[in-house]
Amino acid sequence: MTSNPVHGIDALVRGIHLISRRELRPFILVPLLINLVLFILISGIMISQLGGLSDYIGSLLSHTPVNTENMSWWEAMMAKGTAWAASAFRWLAWIIALLVLFLFFLAYGYLFSVITNIIAAPFNGLLAEKVEELLTGKAPPAEPIMQMVSRTLGRELRKLGYFVFWGLIVFIIAMLTSWTIIIPIVLTAAWGAWCMAIQYVDYPLDNNQRPFAELTSVLRRRKLTTLAFGGSVMLAKMVPILNIFIMPAAVAGGTALWIERLRIEGNPDSQTPVLQ
Question: How far apart are the C-alpha atoms of 131 and 138, rounded to whole Å?
Answer without folding.
Answer: 10
